């Protein structure tokens, strides 16, 4: 029982010792926090540019509300990073203060030891001079021992003096470091206060815009109905194009099967029935090249480049609550990315352009095939590619459209065959 209790107590001590290490591992480094700060400042700058464009309209808009929202989110993230950096500095300051105290204690201890050595030597000498003490030895061996003692004493005294000087130099360095850390902490506290003031102003602006928009419920509902019609037309265009591409692939597969049947006889009749089964599954018959492209696209989930360099997601994928109208939901086929005027649109992956069309409410639309995957770029102002053209990843395909409310948004979608996918899961995390 005693041994078991001892094992448990040792394990408990080990857990206590390791706990601070695990907590330390979870903390972010200063370098990472600095990167987060820079990223959030960049997002705030982008949101500011977008917001300035939407403010050109005298009345409040959904786009303006969205830009303010993203500015607030980025500001809150920035404040969080600054807070974490202040906490990290406080820990570093605490460690420095402990080291400074330790060095001061070491110096005091070394000084006491040195004083004791001097006192002992004086006591041994009993007021005699060094040479008199050596030559007063009773034998040659005793004289040699006294010489060695003085040599050893001199060496030890010098070592103590050297240690004291080194400790003093280190102490001064640590004190200067502490002064810098405290100054940096105070600077960051000032930054945090300033950012909190900005955040409060932005929240006041958000409240004001939201109140103004709430007074225009009738016109907002009308805009929503028009958007639903546009989305239905766009969805029909996409599904028709996917069905057409599938039919082309099936015809090519059947032709290849017939050719193979003629060459090999009736042995492949079962393969023909398999083709029919596949047709029911609504899957593409792909060439080896198209299969490789599909696989490559699939391997890039979470790593695809954004279709625009600047901007943020104004409306997410799927069923989303309307930002103003209570109890009203909007079903989004993809994501709406709000950006700046004349922003270039880029293909997110290599593929073939299969559609360049125009849909009322969605303006110009480009659809690119990547094997069994499709990407859709709607609400475009200009298009610089044509049907049948092979495009590369990050190739410019046109510019984003700016609507009557001075809102510049790209509607971006990803499909796998006839299944809609959430683009946020495929684009790299900013």
Could you characterize the architecture of this molecule?
The chain has helices spanning 2-26, 30-54, 62-125, 130-135, 140-214, 217-264, 269-280, 288-298, and strands at 312-315, 318-321, 329-332, 335-339, 344-346, 351-359, 363-370, 373-383, 390-391, 396-400, 408-416, 419-421. The protein is of the alpha+beta class and 430 residues long. Strands 1, 4, 5, 6, 7, 8, 9, 10, 11 and 12 form a ten-stranded antiparallel sheet that branches. The chain has a two-stranded antiparallel sheet with strand order 2-3. A hairpin with a 2-residue loop joins strand 11 (408-416) and strand 12 (419-421). The longest helix has 75 residues, at 140-214. The model is unreliable at 1-26 and 266-281 (pLDDT under 50).
Map the helices and strands.
Layout: H1 2-26, H2 30-54, H3 62-125, H4 130-135, H5 140-214, H6 217-264, H7 269-280, H8 288-298, E1 312-315, E2 318-321, E3 329-332, E4 335-339, E5 344-346, E6 351-359, E7 363-370, E8 373-383, E9 390-391, E10 396-400, E11 408-416, E12 419-421
Antiparallel strand pairs: 1-4, 2-3, 4-11, 5-10, 6-7, 6-9, 7-8, 8-10, 8-11, 11-12
In short:
With 430 residues, this protein is of the alpha+beta class.
Please state the structural category. alpha+beta
Question: Tell me about the biggest sheet?
Answer: 10 strands, antiparallel
How do the SSEs run, as a string of H and E? Answer: HHHHHHHHEEEEEEEEEEEE
Rounded Rg? 38 Å
What top-tier CATH class of the largest domain fits best?
A: Mainly Beta
CATH architectural name of the largest domain: Distorted Sandwich
The CATH homologous superfamily of the largest domain corresponds to Glucose Permease (Domain IIA)
Tally of strands: 12
- Looking at the structure, the CATH topology of the largest domain is Glucose Permease (Domain IIA)
Low-confidence blocks of residues: 1-26, 266-281
**Count of discrete domains:** 2
